[in-house]
């Protein structure tokens, strides 16, 4: 039987979000209902609310979540009721061209639930990133549930479902940071800090954190940065070159998503270095670079979408490393809040002292 639970809805462009009763159908074939235990507040949720993603209001927000599978539909074999899972927005299809070429991180037919969750009057909801987890329960495709060790705290585990995975993956998957590498990370919010933590995990020898906010640089040091540069007062390209013997960093990770910071990343890399863009630009932004400078260097200019992650490979591995004490994921949880506090958490995002607010149930 369909269930009624509480969830956070974005009713229309720039309107405050509110908690409403939502209807969660029983799982159909290939689907699962998950009892959500924790869900982080991500910038993408705010972008949905602002109408920056699309106009399919009302949205059921929330997508960085962990919980326990409550029920599964026909044909579901990968998870069972009682499993502790992190929700992902890359349930790969296994059949598209990208999947068949062995590059499932580029899958363009990822699975979401087929049925719709609704308001009590029948209005269909658009779940953020196909998840919608600021809700006591949510309906997803079974492939969106990735089983991990239940010893991890749900508030910590959920963060791997989006922003923290994006940052760690930008370093270890896209940037291929390796032992002894020099890395610079521009923008030390949740994503940039995760890139720093990922670089440390991968054995980077030097990790240079760049931000315009000294508080962010302090936190970056606790995540594994070996040096900091405040780019409001210091030219970051020169500083990064100076800290890398004049060469530039082997990997520069741009975690802001702006043309000027991308340009800094471009010029702060070694001649054969890699730039990874993980910050998300807005549609009107343009990049202008001398083509000769693009030609004049080797290396690679890459973008990282969701950290090029494969949830089935990366989530359990990162949870295990966390449980072994080798990756401090708990440091990303600044505060835990209730379902009714999401609007306030959006406001706090601009204050700059929160890495992640996490709704716990
Ligand atoms: N130079 C350096 N750092 C900057 C600049 C700049 N010009 N502008 C902003 N920053 C810093 C901020 O001070 C902050 O520490 O970038 C950081 C951004 O962090 P958050 O706002 O917390 O964002 P985060 O969640 O880390 O996401 C970063 O990745 O996933 C995308 O949409 C997301 O584009 C965003 C980016
Ligand atoms: Zn595919
Ligand atoms: Zn997100």
Automatic annotation (TrEMBL):
SMART domains: PKS_ER
Position of the signal peptide: none
A GO term for molecular function: mycothiol-dependent formaldehyde dehydrogenase activity
PROSITE patterns (alphabetical): ADH_ZINC
Residue ranges annotated for the Enoyl reductase (ER) domain, each copy included: 12-359
Alphabetized Pfam families for the sequence: ADH_N, ADH_zinc_N
Protein's UniProt name: S-(Hydroxymethyl)mycothiol dehydrogenase
């Amino acid at each position: 039987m369909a269930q009624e639970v509480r969830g956070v809805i974005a009713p229309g462009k720039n309107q405050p979000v509110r908690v409403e009763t939502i209807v969660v159908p029983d799982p159909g074939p290939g689907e699962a209902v998950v009892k959500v235990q924790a869900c982080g507040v991500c910038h993408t949720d705010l972008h949905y609310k602002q109408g920056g993603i699309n106009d399919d209001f009302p949205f059921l927000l929330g997508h960085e979540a962990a919980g326990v599978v409550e029920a599964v539909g026909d044909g579901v074999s990968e998870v069972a009721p009682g499993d502790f899972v992190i929700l992902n927005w890359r349930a790969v299809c296994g059949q598209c061209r990208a999947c068949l070429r062995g590059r499932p991180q580029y899958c363009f037919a990822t699975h979401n639930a087929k049925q719709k969750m609704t308001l009590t009057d029948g209005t269909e909801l658009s779940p953020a990133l196909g998840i919608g987890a600021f809700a006591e329960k949510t309906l997803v495709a079974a492939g969106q549930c990735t089983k991990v060790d239940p010893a991890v705290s749900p508030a910590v585990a959920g963060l791997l479902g989006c922003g923290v995975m994006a940052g760690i993956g930008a370093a270890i998957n896209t940037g291929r940071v390796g032992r002894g590498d020099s890395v610079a990370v521009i923008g030390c919010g949740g994503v940039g800090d995760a890139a720093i933590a990922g670089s440390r995990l991968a054995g980077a020898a030097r990790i240079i954190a760049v931000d315009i906010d000294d508080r962010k640089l302090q936190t970056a040091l606790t995540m594994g940065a070996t040096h900091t540069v405040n780019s409001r007062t210091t030219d970051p390209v020169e500083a990064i070159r100076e800290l890398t013997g004049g060469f530039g960093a082997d990997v520069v990770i741009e975690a802001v998503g702006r043309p000027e910071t991308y340009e800094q990343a471009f010029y702060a890399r070694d001649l054969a270095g890699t730039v990874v863009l993980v910050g998300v630009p807005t549609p009107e932004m343009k990049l202008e670079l001398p083509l000769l400078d693009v030609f004049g260097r080797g290396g690679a200019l890459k973008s990282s979408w969701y950290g090029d992650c494969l949830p089935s490979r990366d989530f359990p591995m990162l949870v295990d490393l966390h449980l072994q004490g080798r990756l401090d994921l708990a440091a990303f949880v600044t505060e835990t809040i209730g379902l009714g506090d999401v609007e306030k958490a959006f406001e706090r995002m601009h204050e700059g002292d929160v890495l992640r607010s996490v709704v716990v149930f």
